Automatic annotation (TrEMBL):
PROSITE patterns: RWD (PS50908). Transmembrane segments: none annotated. It comes from the Eukaryota. This is RWD domain-containing protein. It comes from Anopheles coluzzii (African malaria mosquito). CDD domains: RWD_RWDD2 (cd23829), RWDD2_C (cd24163). Residues 20-142 form the RWD domain. InterPro entries: Phi-like, Prp3_C, RWD_dom, RWDD2A-B_C, UBQ-conjugating_enzyme/RWD.
Length: 313
């Protein structure tokens, strides 16, 4: 217990730096909508941990800026802070905009990482403000630089060449269990940030379905796979090629058009019980799958088919 004390004290200092920086950012970006936290419960949890009221960290501090970096268009800068930021871990800082292609967003993310590695010399103190300020000051140049890389790769194509098609993908992911609130928040936040649709069922077993552009579903998988799991695997990967610019065709392929949600499928749940500890109601889950035209996945997940999905004899 005593051996853990220095580690805990160091972590508390890092978390306090995160909260102090967020307070400073809130004073600077104080116009309505400029700086938002999706769940203020994360601040309460960090504060309680620092003060010793709880010994469990259940969340990470994450927030988003929404700034007018483009003409008539606001751009989101998403920030997620690991518990050992700033001294030992780097923040995850991602740029999102409806008018910036996803491939370019990824190149922007890589450029931000490079800036932190090369230009942020003092990493014992919080530096999100420095990075966001750099993005604001250099946004036009950053867009031009990341776009040029895309164009340079396209140069050898003939003048009559058509734009590459898009691959739609749906991943069905199965895990032994999912209870950690931090993992659950990461799953929901990552799916929504990538504009994926689908659902997540925490508990035992855990089932996750995400659908969207293949580049985004694969990024989702790369993000959640390294989290600590007893067992996690992709049970089924469905793909279909869509013509470039075929937004309507892409929308028609989605089975969960309402967005990404956490679903529990618990029947007769007590008021004070934790939903993720309750057994899944197979009946509710089957109805949910049928409602969303996904009855075919029953065999992949559980090894059986309902009468409606079974081939005629």
């Amino acid at each position: 217990m005593d051996e853990q004390a220095p580690h805990n004290d160091h972590q508390k200092k890092e978390l306090q730096k995160q909260l102090d920086e967020f307070q400073m950012l809130s004073a600077i970006y104080c116009n309505p909508g400029e700086l938002r936290v999706d769940d203020y419960g994360c601040i309460d949890n960090l504060t309680s941990y620092i003060s010793g009221e709880t010994d469990r960290l259940t969340t990470k501090l994450d927030y988003r800026f929404e700034l007018p970096l483009l003409p008539d268009q606001k751009v989101q800068i998403l920030v997620e802070l690991p518990h050992r930021y700033p001294a030992l871990e780097m923040p995850r800082i991602v740029i999102r905009s409806a008018v910036i292609p996803r491939d370019q967003e990824r190149r922007l993310t890589d450029r931000i990482v490079r800036y932190i590695e090369e230009e942020v010399l003092e990493r014992n103190e919080a530096y999100v403000l420095q990075v966001v300020g750099w993005i604001q000051d250099n946004f036009a140049e950053l867009l031009a630089a990341t776009a040029e890389r895309k164009e340079s790769k396209a140069c050898p194509r003939s003048a009559g060449a058509t734009t590459s098609p898009i691959v739609f993908e749906r991943l069905w992911i199965y895990s032994h269990h999912l209870k950690s609130k931090m993992k659950r928040q990461t799953i929901i936040k990552t799916a929504r940030d990538l504009r994926l649709t689908g659902f997540s069922r925490p508990g035992k077993p855990a089932i996750i379905c995400v659908e969207g552009q293949q580049a985004d579903t694969q990024e989702f998988w790369r993000t959640i796979k390294p989290l600590k799991w007893q067992k996690i695997q992709i049970k089924l990967c469905e793909t279909e090629t869509v013509a470039a610019g075929g937004e309507n065709e892409m929308a028609a392929l989605r089975h969960f058009a309402a967005g990404f949600r956490e679903e529990l499928f618990c029947a007769d749940m007590d008021e004070d019980s934790d939903a993720e500890d309750q057994p899944m109601s197979m009946s509710l889950f089957m109805k949910f799958l049928d409602k969303h035209r996904c009855g075919y996945i029953k065999k992949e997940l559980f090894g059986f088919q309902s009468a409606i999905d079974a081939p005629a004899s």
